[in-house]
Structures are given as structure tokens and as C-alpha cells.
Amino acid sequence: LDGGSLPWDLAGKHIVVTSGGTREEIDPVRFLGNRSSGKQGHALAALAVARGAEVTLVTSADLPTPPAVTEVRIESARELREETLRAAATADVVIKAAAVADFRPSHVSESKLKKGTGAEPAEIRLERNPDILADLVAARGRGEVPTSCLLVGFAAETGDASASVLEHGRAKLARKGCDLLVVNEVGRDTTFGRDHNGGWILDSDGGETLVDRASKDILAGRILDAVVERSR
Ligand code: CTP
Ligand code: CA
């Protein structure tokens, strides 16, 4: 982060970033998790501070807290929801880089599940987690999140027989009701029959910015540029 050459274009803004995966408890020693490292969200938080923002980072990631960032620790999707909605009440922008578990175990065992006598452990039944981004959109509609608050989602998509990465991204943007959606292409896009590793920043206004494959710091810069542009 070369402070000298960065624009000071987020001064006076409170930006909430969510980062990393959630952990959904099975028993006191086990959880369901995912591979999200939190690097993209942490890069966004660090860069937003360097461009003048006040930043709240809601995260479970095992990464150092970037300087001058207020970190709020969470584990489960429900904790992430509560802390994100709390922070969003005073936010100008919420950027949802966290990989939220879609499901959690319906029942959390109070004691450790043990091997041994008799039957194998029962199946782990799952239930749906709340959709935090959809809840933010709804909270904004009710005025619990400022009407002017910009909501930014992320989506990792693969192309398939029914739609390309871009088409899946457009559909998700419409479904989620957020203002910007950062679409990352993962794997091969079978619809166009070619690899292209970049992604798009989709704007609910209809704008679509192609982003070439780049480091998480560079992508963070592009995302914040889109936030500044959209906030004008
Ligand atoms: N998200 C969320 N709450 C959830 C799931 C996802 O807030 N329970 C957010 C993510 O943080 C991300 C965006 O929604 O910013 C898109 O996540 P994604 O998993 O791609 O969307 P889903 O609606 O869960 O769709 P899919 O069925 O493709 O997983
Ligand atoms: Ca999901």
C-alpha cells in the first residue's frame, strides 16, 4: 500500500467489510467450514483505510487485523448477521466478501460426538442460514440501514450448460437486490468454451466492468473505484 499515490476519496465514509468463511458448530470441538481465507476482505479493509475511510471488519479469518481497522470477531452465519446489521446501521457502504455457509447443523451437540458402543453417529441434519445480504437490502428498505448505504455483494460462479458466468452473475444481482456485485469466475466457462480468469463488477444500473485476473490488492482497488463512482 503506497500511501503517497492513493486517492483520499473515501474520507468521511464508514465502510463495513465482511471477510472469511463462517464456522457452523457441530459439537464443542467440530464445525462445518469452507476454504475462504479472508484475504480479499482484508485487502479491501486495508485499502479503504488507506483511502480515508473508517472501516469495521466483521470476520472469522485467521489473518492480522489491518492497521486502524476496527475488527469484530464472529464464527457462525447468525453471529455474522447480527454484527453486520449492527455495524450497517451507521454505514455508508457494506461490502460482503465473506463466504457465508448456506446451511448449518440443525442440532448442536452439547458434548463431543464419540465413537464406540453400537451405532455409528446419526446423519448431521442441516437447515438454511439466513441470507445476510438479502436481510441488509430489506433492512435498508425499512430504514434500519441508511437509505443511502451502498450494498456490495460477491459471487464466485462457474459457467454451466444453462448459463455463462456473466449470466449467473446478472441473475444473482437481480435476485439479491444489492447495488454492486463482484463476480469472480472460478473454473472453466463451458458456455463460451474458453477460460478467462477475470471477473466483472456488475452495477444494478446496468453497468458491467470487466476485471482482468489480478492480485487481491488490485481487485480491491477496482472495487473501491466502483464504490466511489457509484456514490457520486
Ligand atoms: N451471502 C449472505 N448470506 C448468505 C449467503 C450469501 O449474505 N446466507 C452473501 C455473500 O456474502 C455474497 C453474496 O451473498 O456477498 C453471494 O453469495 P453466494 O453464496 O454466491 O449466493 P447464494 O445466494 O448463497 O447463492 P448460491 O446458491 O449460488 O450459493
Ligand atoms: Ca451460497
Describe what this molecule looks like in 3D.
The chain has 232 residues and is an alpha/beta fold. 27% of the residues lie in helices and 24% in strands. It has helices at residues 39-50, 77-88, 132-141, 165-176, 216-231; strands spanning 14-19, 24-27, 30-32, 54-59, 70-73, 93-96, 103-105, 126-128, 150-157, 180-185, 199-203, 208-211. A hairpin with a 2-residue loop joins strand 2 (24-27) and strand 3. The longest helix is centred in the last third of the chain and has 16 residues, at 216-231. The protein starts with 13 loop residues before the first strand and ends with a helix. Mean pLDDT is 92; it is low at 189-197. Cytidine-5'-triphosphate is lined by residues 77, 96, 98, 100, 102, 129, 131-133, 153-155. The site of cytidine-5'-triphosphate has 12 residues, from helix 3 and strand 9.
Annotate the secondary structure layout:
Elements (H helix, E strand, L loop, with lengths): L13 E6 L4 E4 L2 E3 L6 H12 L3 E6 L10 E4 L3 H12 L4 E4 L6 E3 L20 E3 L3 H10 L8 E8 L7 H12 L3 E6 L13 E5 L4 E4 L4 H16 L1
Parallel strand pairs: 1-4, 1-6, 4-5, 6-9, 9-10
Antiparallel strand pairs: 2-3, 7-8, 10-11, 11-12
The site of cytidine-5'-triphosphate has 12 residues, from helix 3 and strand 9.
